[in-house]
Amino acid sequence: xxxxxxxxxxxxxxxxxxxxxxxxxxxxxxxxxxxxxxxxxxxxxxxxxxxxxxxxxxxxxxxxxxxxxxxxxxxxxxxxxxxxxxxxxxxxxxxxxxxxxxxxxxxxxxxxxxxxxxxxxxxxxxxxxxxxxxxxxxxxxxxxxxxxxxxxxxxxxxxxxxxxxxxxxxxxxxxxxxxxxxxxxxxxxxxxxxxxxxxxxxxxxxxxxxxxxxxxxxxxxxxxxxxxxxxxxxxxxxxxxxxxxxxxxxxxxxxxxxxxxxxxxxxxxxxxxxxxxxxxxxxxxxxxxxxxxxxxxxxxxxxxxxxxxxxxxxxxxxxxxxxxxxxxxxxxxxxxxxxxxxxxxxxxxxxxxxxxxxxxxxxxxxxxxxxxxxxxxxxxxx
Length: 382
Prior knowledge:
Oligomer: single chain
Mean pLDDT: 91
CATH class of the largest domain: Alpha Beta
Strand order of the largest sheet: 3-2-1-4-5-7-6
Strand content: 25-35%
């Protein structure tokens, strides 16, 4: 058995802080409740799948503690994939797993599925439908989370796809749901394809996979920034929608300015798939490149005349400005001298100081009861 320590796992390259952990009580409880099942498939490569592993605790825990090999894992966040890879190297478990998209191959013939419960019921529905349709008939799903993020509706969602759903005993404020017996008539989840909604007031189609933030809605921060888009970098020839989500900003910009080149990036696999479909639905797929990337890190420095940004104000369940600041730093790197960053953020976060420091002169162009929109110009000497 490989030496393994949950405490040694790291979150990098994601934000690290004393109150942000790479593994928690839910990870430990999932592995403990699945221990017998994992032991039963220890010598049978390719029978374990993992969905929603945050930073590798489930994948590497199954590999190290239960001699698992050939584990297939899917993480929506690119930072999670990268953290898993680094933690695997640190633990001597590089060859124990492979990362896959949320596709049938991920769970094909799997007998044990370990899962962190997503916050979105649509995302859970999508994953449960995939497992019920493509895993082994005797598969057992161990889906866990912290109690404060769990609802009875999660049991009901799993119950649409499995004949047996049982809630285990809580421990350290975590709980695991066990699901088995794939339903013969398991319905195809709406998220297995794309949900679509046309927003008359914006003239936009928004398409979303189950795990995409806000689904087919346009969140109120993005909606506020859209109202100022006409004045954003009016002479820009190239633009980046940084943290694009389902792609509303990129699609609106491309529709309004046929000559502008747009790149839309997000680290979420569900967001990228959704944004690609949004571009197709709005007829701008030939003019918008969608990229799974973290903070525009793979794009050339000083390559954009305009960056649009609606940064997150939380990391997982924790309110934390670190992710937003990292995106502002990414925007500063991407902007050509004199280029503009247009940002919308919750007013209480007070990003103006960071925008001035990291990008350049910043002015407020809009404010309502909740949000502020600013325009920052990249300093020529920055």
